[in-house]
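Dig into what follows:

_____
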Amino acid sequence: MTAALLTDKYELTMLAAALRDGTAHRRASFEVFARRLPFGRRYGVVAGTARFLSALAEFRFDDDALASLDFLDPETLRWLADYEFRGDIDGYPEGELYFPDSPVLSIHGTFAECVILETLVLSIFNHDTAIASAAARMVSAAVGRPLIEMGSRRTHEQAAVASARAAYIAGFTGTSNLEAQRSFGVPALGTSAHAFTLVHTATTGPDEVAAFRAQVDALGVGTTLLVDTYDITQGVANAIAVAGPQLGAVRIDSGDLGVMARQVRDQLDWLGATGTRIVVSGDLDEYSISGLAAAPVDVYGVGTSVVTGSGAPTASMVYKLVEVDGMPVAKRSSHKESHGGRKAALRLAKESGTIVEEVVHPAGSPPVDDGRVLTVPLVRSGSVVCDSSLADARARVAAGLRSLPWDGLKLSRGEPAIPTRLVGA
C-alpha cells in the first residue's frame, strides 16, 4: 500500500483539469474544520497530526502507483511523478481541544499540491479525532482511574493501531495492541481470555485452579486472573488460593459489574488480598464508567465503544478552499457554509484558567493580545518544524479538560462548552 493512493479519484481528475487550464499553479489555502461537533458533544480533541505529517512525507507517486492511474493524461502523470509537498501547514497542536469552526489545520501552497491531500488529511483526522474525543470523555468519567484500550478485535486491523494511539493521547493508560506499542510506544497491557481457563479441562470437568496456576507460574503473582468463567465467588477463592494475597488483580468481564465489584472487593479483603485490584470490562462506555464511579473498581478495560468513537465514528471535519492568490473564497451552500480567508485562532480564559471563548481571526491579525495562541507552524516549505511527541499531546488533553467550564465535562447532550467567535471572516 502506498500513501499516495489513499486518495479519492476526483482529486486527481481535478488536478488534471487544473493543469490543463493553468489554475493548478495558483496559490491556495485549504482549511480543515468541523461545522459542528458530533450530536450532543461539548468539545473535541485534535488527534492524528503526527500520523498525518508522517504520511505526508511518504506521499509519493512511484512507478507502481503511476501505472495504476491509466485514466490520467501524460502531463498529469509527469507532474505526479515529481510530486512532493513544498508548501506550509499551520494548525492546532495534537491533543488540543477544538470546537465548531476551529481552524484545526491550514494548508498553503499551489492549488495542485494542496487539493490532492484532501482524502489523506480527512481520513486521518476524522478517525483519530473521533476516537480521542470519545476516549477523553471516558477519561473524565473514570475520575483518575486507569483505562486500558482493548478494541483491536472490534475494528479494522490498521484502524486498531491508530485507535490505540488516539486513546492514549486522550489519557488512557495503555492498550492491548502490540503494534501500537512497537510503532508509537503506547504501553501494552493484557490479561487472559476465557479460552485459557476453558482449555484446562480435566476428565472430571473444568479445572480453573490449573489454569490459574499455569498463568501465575508463567507471569508471576502480579498477573491479572479472569475470575468469572464459571462461578465468580469460587473463581476469586481459587485465584487467591493459587497466587496468595499478593495477586496483582482479578478481572470481571460479565454480569452487573457494580454489584459484582462490591462482592469481589469484600471477598478479597476477607481473604487478606487488600492490595489486589479489580479490573472490569465488557461493553463499557463513558456512561457505564460514570455509573461505576462509586463501585470499588480500580481499572477499566474498554473495547468497542472507544474504537467506534462511542457512537461518533467520524469527527465530521471537512477540507475547504478558503483563499486563492490572497483573496478569500467561501462556499455558500445551505447548511454547508465555509468562511473565507486564511485564519488562525486563540482562546480566552478567566484568571482561574477556565476557558470562556474561542476567537477565530484572519491569520496575522489577532484582535486581542491576551489570548492563548492555538495556531502554530507545523510545516514550512515542505519540512516538518513542530514537536509531535505523545507525551506533549497527552499533557495538552489533560490541561484542556481541566480548563473546561464545569458543564463542559457533562456527559449529557448539550451545546459546545464555549462559543466560537469569528472575527473579520
The two ends are 40 Å apart (CA to CA). The CA atoms of residues 180 and 368 lie 41 Å apart. The chain has a mean pLDDT of 95.
